[in-house]
Known about the structure:
single chain; binds NADP nicotinamide-adenine-dinucleotide phosphate; 7 helices; Rossmann fold; 40% helix; alpha/beta
Amino acid sequence: MSSRICDSVLVTGSNRGIGLELIHQLVESPSRPEQIFATCRDPEGPRAQELRELAQKHKDVIVIVQLDTTDPASISQAAKTVGSKLKDGSLNLIINNAGVNVHLELCSTQEKDMVDTYRTNVVGPMFVAKEFLPYLRKAASQFHNQTDMSCRRAAVINVSTLVSSIQRCPENFARAPMYAYRISKAALNMLTRCLAEEFRKDGILVMAIHPGWVKTDMGGQKAPVLPEDSVKGMLKVISSLTEKDSGTLLDIEGHSIPW
Ligand SMILES: NC(=O)c1ccc[n+]([C@@H]2O[C@H](COP(=O)([O-])OP(=O)(O)OC[C@H]3O[C@@H](n4cnc5c(N)ncnc54)[C@H](OP(=O)(O)O)[C@@H]3O)[C@@H](O)[C@H]2O)c1
């Protein structure tokens, strides 16, 4: 990254996997943001150990904030906490990364799997966008060029997936017949499109990104893409987004994926 991606960024589910790698690369970039809000549902627990160590090393930049995307009270409290720490009350970028996948076929999928997955992968990102909207609006309003849209100004990035694509379903369904995950991420795409329409008047960009099939707890050991490479691609795409990209689903090379 040559110029600063943005001044302030918030990432959900930042204690492991792609989220943790996002925090690593954001803070280690020579053009790093001034404020990085690394949120996770259990900041004191063992799964956040590596994040705590990273935050300790970069005390001036990383702030860990408790945020469980399935708990509206937690999202609202996180918004208050972040709001009290933001410079000028402006937040440039939200990366809705937290997600779950139960890897279940039709016969083994229970109602609870559908509801829990939807709550994390769709309702969570929606309420994060809603609760943090005042800070995004403030950031967008302060930008010198009122016609530009970018993550330097104000943006929401929803981490989606190739398997959310209804058009591409016939070619990849047999390899990944995971109902709850696919359906929830297709709904996340619609959320992306709705928010893009609603926030356009405020100059806030909203898009969805497919990180690749990534070697994490969710992606598994057979995944061909390392988190380092996925996040490098994600940040390259995110930092070059313009108005034409709002309301789209892109991969880590910036190619469009059909809905
Ligand atoms: N890996 C892939 O191949 C792949 C492919 C396409 C898309 N994606 C998407 O990329 C994103 C990150 O995936 P990943 O591979 O990094 O998965 P991961 O290794 O399983 O990590 C998931 C992260 O989400 C957090 N999370 C889950 N539920 C949460 C909740 N209710 N509140 C807050 N945080 C929560 C987890 O926190 P805890 O430690 O507290 O559980 C963890 O930090 C997801 O949205 C996923 O759908 C991944």
